[in-house]
Design brief:
The chain has 5 helices and 6 strands. The chain is α/β, with parallel strands linked by helices. A 6-stranded mixed beta sheet has the order 5-4-3-2-1-6, sandwiched between helices.
Length: 154
């Protein structure tokens, strides 16, 4: 029992520090990511850098972002700056991006990115995972999506 409690505390500490986790599914050309807690612009940069180290981003054609457990703290200037960075990174990529959120603030911030003409037909914002995967054209999402073998960004 003591070992179980120790393991439980260790896992809770990991999740407290974790900003994001992600996994690439090559068979679907899918990058699945989930964000947690307070997320600032520097955190988004750090997450993008970690993804670039672990994944060949040019092979990603579909991105699933679950931001339901995140509190994005970005000013309008930071959103505009981040949108410009994303456009530069993705300018030569053919991709679809589904964002799942259930909070007014994260929905609004997601829509600010989506409303940029570059992203207009590429990004959709949803309140359910099922709808997001329909948009991405993935009929049966991986059973273990974001539950095992993922990279953690703190």
């Amino acid at each position: 029992m003591k070992l179980f409690n120790s393991l439980r505390v260790s896992l809770l500490q990991i999740y407290k520090c974790m900003k994001a986790k992600f996994k690439y599914y090559p068979e679907n050309q899918l990058l699945a990511e989930a964000f947690y807690g307070l997320i600032k612009l520097d955190d988004l940069h750090k997450i993008n850098q970690q993804q670039a180290k672990q994944i060949n981003l040019e092979s990603v054609r579909k991105t699933f972002s679950d931001i339901r457990n995140a509190n994005l703290v970005l000013s309008l200037n930071e959103i505009n700056s981040y949108t410009k960075e994303l456009k530069k990174l993705m300018q030569k990529m053919n991709f679809q991006w589904a964002i799942v959120t259930d909070q007014p603030q994260t929905t609004a911030l997601s829509l600010l990115i989506k409303n940029d003409p570059f992203f207009d037909n590429r990004i959709r914002v949803y309140s359910t995972i099922t709808a997001a995967f329909v948009f991405l054209g993935i009929e049966s999402p991986p059973n273990s999506i974001l539950h095992s073998d993922y990279f953690i960004v703190e």
